[in-house]
């Protein structure tokens, strides 16, 4: 099931923070308390869930090589992919503005605690990175794009939740003075990333699949050889008959 | 008073150590970690960021008095996006293999916090020449950290620098490998970049006590 595989792959194996380091700036800045971290994580999931499918539509129907074919056959040669950056960032900025208005109306306390970081989601590498990875990995359908947006957001949310919880706990630990704050956060994130690498074998299955594949390949080539031999014999017989 | 006064030189030298964008201002971390597995992409990334930041700072500073405050961020985004598109197209044209290696991280220069951060903190309030120098200084500070991390990761991870095998040949067992040394493949993986920067911060803050947080 493609959807389930993409879902778990984007949360654990291609985790936005631990595998590709997207969104580190706000990750480091907002992770001092669990409550604000949860708020920012939820906002990131929401923004990713909206912008990745929207940018997918833009990419497939406007920007890709040959995307404009629906307008008419004379437009089928156009390749507007060099405009991707500016179109994606425009969509993202608009959507974030929308999210800001909604949050201000329905959750004013969250709005106040997030402060400047809510508009800063627009320039969060994670959001633009989600759209760019969606484009470079050539995600095939709108449903998969939405799936990818939500699951990468959940992966980011997991990461910031974990580091905020750990930072709260180590506030009274005996960290060496030069490492306090930023330094130890980097090292802890590195260790968590090593931990997340353990998920790498999760979706690739075991070794038995590989060996059965190999035997099938060998059989078909043998069959091919036999069939070509038969064909050569038949051709020879035909020649003899003609003569 | 020449073209570069003492205050101007400080604009370039401060971000190299005391006000380093990565280790002190905590900006621009995303790409600093992702592209540093080898030295060559890191140098190209640093040069790209230098171009975008210096040019962007100058442009924003030139139009700083006519930008309406409400659409400030959008104007900044448009300027950065245009410059990054230029950089991306140049890379695709003249260094295609490298641009494939850097993949989406060239595009992510748009959201590189250093650029927006310097626009807001400096370019909007200073004249174009000083903004240009500030751009050069901050991108140089960013570049230094990138090069240091990439230097150690490539040297310890693949025994080479810029593609040249400097420690000997690991298959023929010449050079250092003859004594039993093996490449530490772990350094090429993502988490080690984080830990390397953590160590750089440790060293930097031990030497400059004023930077230690409470």
Order of secondary-structure elements of chain B: HHHHHHHHEEH
Q: What percent of the residues of chain B sit in helical stretches (DSSP H or I)?
A: 55-70%
Instruction: Write down how many β-strands of chain B occur, each being a DSSP E stretch of 2 or more residues.
Output: 2
Radius of gyration of chain B: 19 Å
* Alpha plus pi helix count of chain A: 9
What is the number of helices of chain B?
A: 9
Instruction: Please identify the oligomeric state.
Output: heterodimer
Class from helix and strand fractions of chain A: mainly alpha
Main sheet summary of chain A? none
Helix and strand pattern of chain A: HHHHHHHHH
What fraction of residues of chain A sit in β-strands?
under 5%
- Silhouette of chain A: flat
Largest interface: A-B, 46 and 47 residues
Largest sheet of chain B: 2 strands, antiparallel
**Distance between the first and last residues' Cα of chain B:** 41 Å
End-to-end Cα distance of chain A, whole Å, is 59 Å
Low-confidence stretches of chain B: none
Shape of chain B: globular
Structural class of the helix and strand makeup of chain B?
A: mainly alpha
Count every beta strand of chain A, where a strand is a DSSP E run of 2 or more residues: 0
What is the topology, as strand order, of the major beta sheet of chain B? 1-2
């Amino acid at each position: 099931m493609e959807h389930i595989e993409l879902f778990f792959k984007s949360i654990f194996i291609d985790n936005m923070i631990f595998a590709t380091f997207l969104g580190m700036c706000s990750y480091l800045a907002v992770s001092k308390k669990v409550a604000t971290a949860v708020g920012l994580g939820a906002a990131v999931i929401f923004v990713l869930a909206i912008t990745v499918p929207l940018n997918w539509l833009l990419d497939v129907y406007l920007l890709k090589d040959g995307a404009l074919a629906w307008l008419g056959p004379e437009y089928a040669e156009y390749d507007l992919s060099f405009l991707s950056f500016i179109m994606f960032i425009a969509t993202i900025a608009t959507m974030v503005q929308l999210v800001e208005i909604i949050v201000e109306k329905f959750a004013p306390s969250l709005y106040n605690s997030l402060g400047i970081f809510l508009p800063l989601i627009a320039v969060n590498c994670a959001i633009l990175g989600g759209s760019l990875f969606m484009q470079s990995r050539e995600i095939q359908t709108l449903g998969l794009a939405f799936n990818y947006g939500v699951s990468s957001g959940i992966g980011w949310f997991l990461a910031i939740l974990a580091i905020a919880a750990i930072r709260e706990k180590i506030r009274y630990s005996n960290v060496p003075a030069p490492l306090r704050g930023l330094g130890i956060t980097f090292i802890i994130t590195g260790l968590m990333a090593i931990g997340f690498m353990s998920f790498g074998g999760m979706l690739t299955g075991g070794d038995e699949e590989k060996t059965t594949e190999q035997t099938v390949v060998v059989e078909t080539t043998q069959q091919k050889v036999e069939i070509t031999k038969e064909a050569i014999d038949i051709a020879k017989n035909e020649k003899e008959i003609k003569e | 008073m020449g073209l570069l006064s003492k205050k101007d030189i400080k604009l370039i030298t401060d971000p190299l150590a005391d006000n380093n964008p990565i280790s002190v201002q905590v900006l621009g971390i995303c790409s600093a970690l992702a592209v540093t597995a080898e030295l060559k992409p890191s140098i190209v990334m640093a040069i790209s960021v230098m171009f975008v930041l210096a040019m962007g700072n100058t442009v924003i500073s030139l139009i700083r008095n006519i930008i309406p405050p409400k659409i400030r961020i959008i104007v900044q985004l448009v300027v950065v996006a245009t410059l990054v598109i230029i950089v991306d197209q140049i890379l695709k044209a003249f260094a295609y293999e490298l641009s494939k290696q850097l993949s989406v991280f060239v595009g992510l220069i748009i959201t590189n916090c250093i650029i927006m951060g310097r626009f807001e903190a400096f370019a909007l309030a200073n004249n174009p020449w000083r903004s240009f120098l500030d751009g050069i200084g901050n991108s140089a500070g960013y570049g230094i950290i990138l090069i240091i991390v990439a230097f150690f990761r490539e040297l310890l991870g693949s025994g080479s620098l810029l593609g040249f095998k400097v420690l000997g040949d690991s298959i023929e067992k010449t050079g250092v490998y003859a004594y039993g040394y093996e490449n530490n493949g772990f350094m090429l993986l993502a988490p080690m970049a984080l830990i390397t920067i953590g160590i750089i911060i440790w060293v930097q803050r031990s030497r400059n006590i004023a930077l230690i947080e409470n």
